[in-house]
């Protein structure tokens, strides 16, 4: 009997996430002014696009690096393995947020020199930089799954039957027996991407230079939340604690900041619940 990738409770949280965003979208359609709503739509789509690209690139880089290490360990020459291990450990030694910030600094120079003019190219750059510093999460998982199954009898039995090692790893280990593990890791990578993106946007919101600022980059949820209007909306949430009667105004007069913050927090919460549900159900 095949194991479902998502259990009923996980699918329920996914439905809650989609339903919550749709409800928020409809509410903003009715009460948020058109320019602000247009910015929110673009920021949400840009953030989603970066997240999807990071998941794709991280999967590809993690899979390739894990297979490369696996086969290099079995080769006679140790130099390629040592070089690859050194590069991966070098990347691992750099804190993710510092690495992404360095990528933004380079992006600033590219935008300043008008080398990267396309908004899509800038988003692709950001996604590629984030992927470099998160793909090791996928690589470590792939390596762990390969090593786990190599210790079992079926691995050697398949080799004796003439099945190639690449087919055993890609088809039998990763595809047939590790899809749920990979799905859980990719959900985590997506959530990590949103967190890093929003964190860096807040850091650079103080201003990078007189020529290049946050407004020169494609707007994301973090960038929208760093805008002055959104910051004022967030401050209005704090005012509710001293003046509870002002609570209704949050959902009509401060929608941009509240909607942006809600989208970020609600998305991270739902992704955590789905990922945590997979871990508890399957003891990943």
Task: Name some characteristics of this structure.
globular; 284 residues; 12 helices; 0% strand
Task: Give a summary of the structure in a few sentences.
With 284 residues, the chain is mostly helical. It contains twelve helices and no strands. The protein starts with 7 loop residues before the first helix and ends with a helix.
Give structural notes.
By secondary structure, the protein is mainly alpha-helical. It contains twelve helices and no strands. It has helices at 8-31, 34-73, 79-93, 96-112, 119-150, 153-160, 165-177, 179-204, 221-225, 228-242, 247-250, 255-282. Helix 1 runs antiparallel to helix 12, helix 5 runs antiparallel to helix 8 and helix 10 crosses helix 12 (255-282). The two termini are 19 Å apart.
C-alpha geometry? globular
> What is the radius of gyration computed over CA atoms, rounded to a whole number of angstroms?
22 Å
Strand content: under 5%
What percent of residues adopt helix (DSSP H or I)?
over 70%
Mean of residue pLDDT values = 87
Listing every helix as H and every strand as E from the N terminus to the C terminus, the arrangement reads HHHHHHHHHHHH
Q: For this entry, what is the oligomeric state of its chains?
A: single chain
So how many helices? 12
């Amino acid at each position: 009997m095949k194991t479902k990738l998502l259990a009923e409770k996980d699918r329920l949280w996914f439905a809650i996430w989609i339903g919550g965003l749709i409800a928020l979208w409809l509410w903003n359609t009715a009460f948020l002014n058109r320019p602000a709503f247009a910015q929110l739509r673009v920021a949400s789509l840009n953030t989603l696009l970066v997240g999807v690209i990071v998941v794709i690139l991280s999967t590809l880089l993690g899979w390739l690096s894990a297979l490369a290490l696996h086969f290099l360990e079995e080769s006679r020459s140790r130099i390629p393995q040592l070089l690859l291990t050194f590069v991966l450990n070098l990347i691992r030694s750099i804190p993710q947020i510092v690495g992404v910030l360095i990528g933004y600094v380079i992006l600033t120079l590219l935008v300043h020199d008008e080398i990267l003019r396309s908004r899509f190219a800038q988003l692709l750059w950001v996604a590629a930089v984030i992927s470099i510093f998160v793909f090791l999460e996928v690589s470590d998982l792939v390596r762990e799954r390969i090593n786990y199954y190599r210790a079992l009898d079926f691995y050697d039995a398949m080799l004796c039957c003439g099945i190639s090692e690449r087919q055993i790893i890609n088809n039998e280990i990763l595809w047939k027996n590790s899809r749920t593990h990979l799905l859980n890791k990719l959900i985590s990578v997506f959530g990590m991407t949103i967190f890093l993106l929003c964190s860096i946007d807040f850091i650079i919101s103080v201003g990078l230079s007189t020529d290049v600022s946050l407004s020169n980059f494609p707007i994301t949820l973090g960038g929208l939340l760093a805008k002055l209007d959104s910051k004022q909306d967030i401050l209005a949430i704090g005012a509710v604690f001293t003046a509870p009667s002002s609570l209704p105004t949050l959902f009509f007069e401060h929608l941009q900041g509240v909607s942006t913050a809600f989208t970020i927090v609600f998305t991270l919460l739902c992704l955590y619940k789905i990922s945590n549900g997979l871990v508890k159900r399957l003891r990943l």
